[in-house]
C-alpha cells in the first residue's frame, strides 16, 4: 500500500507541460522566436591564427563558399537565415540548373536524415542556392535561405562575446566585423594599413546590425548594475525602503 501511494504521489507531481509532452508529443516549452546554436569562435579564431587567410571545415566553408547571390550577406544573417541541405538523389545534384537560384527544388528531394520543415508555407517561401564550385560539397549540397520573418535567433556558444567598453578593443572590433561585414577572406575585413578599430569605425553598419550590436552589451550592463548595487549595500550607501528599516 505504501509503495502504491508513493507511486501515485510521484505522478501527481508531474506538471501539465510534461504530461502533454509524453502523452501528446507537444513541445515542453514555447518561445516567440526560434533559436539556433552558433559556435562563433570557430570563425574569428581562424581569421586570427592564419593572419587573415581563412582555412577550416564546415560551417566555415559553407559561408565563405556561399552563392554569389548571397555575396552581401553578413555572417550573422547567414546563421539566422541559411542552412545547408543534402540532395537525396545523385541525379538531382548532377542535374542542378546553371542558375544559382533553385526555386524548383522541393524539400522531399532532401535526405531522410535532414530535419523536416514544419509546414508547407515555409517550404514555399524558402529559396535554394548552389554553393560555389570551390566548396568541397558543391556537387551534393545546397543552401536553403528562409525569409526574414522565418529566420532564427543565433544563440552564441563557445565563449563570452567581447564587450565594447572594456577589454581588448582590437579583439572586439575584429569580432563585430566578422559578424556584420560580408567577407570571404580575412583580407576583406580591413585594409592592410588599417587597424581593426579604424576598420570598425569606417564600416557603415545597417540599422538592424547596430541594434544587435548594442543589444550585445545589455548583459554586461546588467552585471555592472548588479555589482554596483552590491557595492552600495556593502558600504551601507543604498537607500532602503521603509519596510526594510529597523523599527
The percent range for strand residues is 5-15%
| Weakly predicted, low-confidence segments | 44-51, 53-57, 89-122
Q: Total helix count?
A: 11
What structural category do the secondary elements indicate?
mainly alpha
Mean pLDDT, all residues: 73
Order of helices and strands: HHEHHHEHHEEEHHHH
**N-C termini distance:** 53 Å
Any idea what the radius of gyration is? 25 Å
Give a structural overview.
- The protein has helices spanning 2-12, 16-24, 41-49, 60-64, 75-81, 90-94, 120-125, 169-180, 196-202, 207-216, 218-234; strands at 35-39, 82-86, 127-130, 141-145, 153-157.
- With 247 residues, it is mainly α.
- It has one domain.
- The protein has a three-stranded antiparallel sheet with strand order 2-4-3. A two-stranded parallel sheet has the order 1-5.
- Helix 8 (169-180) packs across helix 9.
- It is flat and about 80 Å long.
- The protein starts with a helix and ends in a 13-residue tail after the last helix.
- The model is unreliable at 44-51, 53-57 and 89-122 (pLDDT under 50).
Amino acid at each position: 500500500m505504501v509503495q502504491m501511494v508513493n507511486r501515485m504521489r510521484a505522478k501527481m507531481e508531474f506538471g501539465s507541460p510534461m504530461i502533454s509532452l509524453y502523452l501528446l508529443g507537444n513541445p515542453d516549452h514555447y518561445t516567440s522566436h526560434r533559436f539556433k546554436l552558433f559556435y562563433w569562435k570557430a570563425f574569428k579564431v581562424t581569421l586570427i591564427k592564419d593572419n587573415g587567410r581563412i582555412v577550416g571545415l564546415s560551417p566555415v566553408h559553407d559561408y565563405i563558399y556561399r552563392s554569389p547571390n548571397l555575396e552581401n550577406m553578413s555572417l550573422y544573417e547567414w546563421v539566422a537565415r541559411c542552412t545547408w541541405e543534402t540532395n537525396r538523389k545523385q541525379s538531382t545534384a548532377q542535374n542542378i540548373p546553371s542558375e544559382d537560384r533553385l526555386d524548383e527544388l522541393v524539400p522531399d528531394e532532401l535526405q531522410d536524415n535532414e530535419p523536416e520543415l514544419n509546414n508547407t508555407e515555409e517550404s514555399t517561401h524558402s529559396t535554394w542556392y548552389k554553393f560555389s564550385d570551390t566548396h568541397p560539397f558543391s556537387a551534393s549540397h545546397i543552401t536553403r535561405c528562409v525569409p526574414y520573418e522565418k529566420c532564427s535567433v543565433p544563440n552564441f556558444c563557445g565563449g563570452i562575446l567581447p564587450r565594447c567598453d572594456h577589454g581588448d578593443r582590437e579583439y572586439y572590433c575584429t569580432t563585430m566585423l566578422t559578424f556584420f561585414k560580408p567577407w570571404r577572406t580575412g583580407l576583406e575585413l580591413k585594409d592592410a594599413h588599417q587597424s581593426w578599430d579604424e576598420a570598425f569605425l569606417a564600416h557603415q553598419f545597417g540599422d538592424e546590425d547596430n541594434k544587435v550590436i548594442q543589444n550585445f552589451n545589455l548583459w554586461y550592463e546588467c552585471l555592472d548594475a548588479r555589482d554596483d548595487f552590491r557595492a552600495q549595500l556593502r558600504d551601507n550607501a543604498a537607500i532602503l525602503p521603509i519596510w526594510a528599516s529597523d523599527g
